[in-house]
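Quick illustration for those who missed Monday's session on complexes.
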Amino acid sequence: MEQNKYSLVIVGFGGMGSYHVQLIEPSERLAVTGVYDVVDYRKELAAAKGFKTYDSLEAVLSDETVDVVLIATPNDVHKEIAIRALTAGKHVICEKPVTVDSADLRDILEVSKESDRVFMVHQNRRWDEDFLIIQDLIEKKKIGEVFHLESRVQGANGIPGDWRQLKAYGGGMLLDWGVHLLDQLLLLTGSRIDSVTAELSTILGTEVDDGFTSFIRFKDGLTAVIEVGTTNFIKLPRWYVKGTEGTAIIRDWDLSGEIVVNNPDVAKVEPKPIQAGQGLTKTMAPPSEESTLRLPIEKALSTKQSFYDNFVSVIEGKSEPLVKNEEVHRVLRLIETIFEAAEKRAVLKDLEL
Ligand code: NAD
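Prediction with nicotinamide-adenine-dinucleotide bound:
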C-alpha cells in the first residue's frame, strides 16, 4: 500500500477492464497501479496510460506490492484467476457473471475463506438509478403492495461480435445481462421462489442465447417477467410495476416515466366508456383523472457506499459487503434453473431457491 491506497492490478484490460480505471479514479483508498492482459496490444494501451504492465499472471501474483486483483477477462477464466490470486494472498474483485456455474463459485469461496482474503463480485447495477427508484418505491409502498413487475433491457444490435457469442467463454445474454436483472430482482423481495419458466431466444443463430424471457413466481405471490433482447428495433419499457394502489413505469435509462396512483383524498369516480376499435369499453378505459394522481419519477436518495469504498471497508473489517457472495450464488442458481426450464419447456416448482 502506498499513500494509504491499496494497489490494484487489472487482469483483462478490454472494454470493462479499462472502464474500471475511470470508476476507481475517485477512490481515496484504491489505486490502479498495473495491468495484465494476454494480448500485447492491450498491454501497450495500458503502458501508454502510465500503468505498469506484467508479462504473466504469475508476475502479478508474485509482486508483493499488489494488494488487489481485479478480474475483467471473459467469463470462462474468472474461476482460475480468482483461485490463483486468492491463494497468492491477494484480495479479489471479480466481474459478473462471477462464474458460469454455481459450483465453481463455491470452490472460489472455499479458497477465499481458507486464505482469509476478500472476494467480491462487481454487481454494479445494484447502484443503477432506475433500480434504486424501483427499490425505494416498493419499500415505501408508493403504489401499495407490488404484486407484479416486469424488468427488461432490449437492443437491436445482436450479441457483440466477440467471445459473448461463444458457449465455451460463458457467452449468451442470460449470463451477460440476465445476471444483472436477476440480481436486482432478488433484492426487491425477501420471498423465496415458487416457480420458474423461461424461453431462450436464438433468432440470430448463435450457439448461445441472444436473449430470453422468464416468468418467476415468488412464494409471497409476487410475479415477475424478466426479459433481455438483442433483436428489438422498438423496445418495451425498462420497468413496468403494478401495485394494489397504482402502476409505475420507467421507460428508459433517462428515467423518463410516471407513476399513477389512486388519489386517497377523492372517492373513486367511475370511468366513462371509451371508443375502442369497433366497440365501447369501460373495462379498458383509463382510470378517471379526478380519482387518480399522476406523479413524476423522482430520484431515490441513496446513502449507499460506492462499490469500491465498500470493498475497502470490507478488507479492513469495518463493513459488511454490499454484494454478498451468498446472494451472487443464489442468482447463479436461478440462472441454472432458467436454463433448465427453457430446455425442458417446463414450469419448475418446489425449488430450494
Ligand atoms: P473484452 O473482450 O472487451 O475484454 C476482455 C479482455 O480480457 C481482453 O483484453 C482479453 O485480451 C483479456 N483476456 C482474455 N483472457 C485473459 C486471461 N486469461 N488473462 C488476462 N487477460 C485475458 O470483454 P469485456 O466486455 O471487457 O468483459 C470482460 C468481463 O467484464 C466479462 O466478465 C464481462 O461480463 C464483464 N463486464 C461487466 C460489465 C458490468 O457492467 N459489470 C460490463 C461489461 C463487461
